[in-house]
Amino acid sequence: MKKSMVLTILLVFSLALPTMAAKILFHAPLEDEASVKKQGGEVLGGTGYFAEGVVGNGYCAPNVGDVILFPVEGRINPEHGTCEFFVKTVIPYSEVPKRGNEIFLMTCAFGDNRFFVQSHYASGGPGISWRVNSANNWLPDLTVNEYDGKAVTDWGKDEIHHIAGMFGEKGFRLYLDGILAGENDLKSSFIGGLPATWAISNEEGATLPSEWIVDEFKVWDDYLSTDEVNKIIKEAQSVEQNNKLSTTWGRLKAQ
Predict the structure, then answer these.
(1) Which domains does the chain have, with CATH numbers?
(2) How far is it, in rounded angstroms, from Cα 92 to Cα 71?
(3) Is 95 helix (H, G, I), strand (E, B) or coil?
């Protein structure tokens, strides 16, 4: 469980870290089905499960049909923002192609626009992609294959990684493990769209399950700076160290 002890640790630890200028519009801890329902979400499919993630539990969708859906309305700034979360790699990246070439970690459907964060072996892959489909047209992908000297394909089993995708007037930005791994000038937003759903650990139709545990999903009302992204990571690391999780932190433990 995400105990009050954890909150105390984060409060004390955050005093030494940068103040966050952006504000959280939505935070889904993904602790269990009851917490999802309390936030107006629903858990679909019969084989998805909640298991140890980064801060308490996260959610894994191992099969087609498994997905968590949350309403979007009031939980996004349509002009710009950040979607960020942690993943625990239940399977290594090298096994992703054996499961349909791509897995979806987060999607947001908003009117005719759909934003995706996914592990992608097709266009621009293999890597982690921050993509948008507008009125059934795919806009240029932002796909990262390597960052900070590390290939995404080297992500192994039971590693923890942090992913943050940003959109708006400054273009798309994709952070992996606190590193600005890729950016472009695609100034896409959700303006003019009608609210629909956030989909966690799959896409809205639930046909491309992630098979990775997604944890601590947050939506912010603006771009985050590099310092702010790393503050989020370091806060989670302080919890991990206290709970003595055995999971490998990817490149993060070396910092």
Answers:
(1) 20-254 (2.60.120.200)
(2) 31
(3) helix
Query: Which range, of 15-19, 38-42, 57-61, averages the lowest pLDDT?
Result: 15-19
Predicted confidence (pLDDT) per residue in 186-232, tens digit? 876 655 555 578 888 877 777 777 788 999 999 999 999 999 999 99
CA distance 216 to 58: 7
Q: What are the E-state strand segments in the chain?
A: 24-28, 42-44, 49-52, 57-60, 67-71, 81-88, 102-110, 113-120, 127-134, 137-138, 142-144, 146-147, 150-151, 160-167, 173-176, 179-183, 195-200, 213-220
Residue 71 bridge partners (DSSP): 197
- Per-residue pLDDT tens for 157-173? 999 999 999 988 998 99
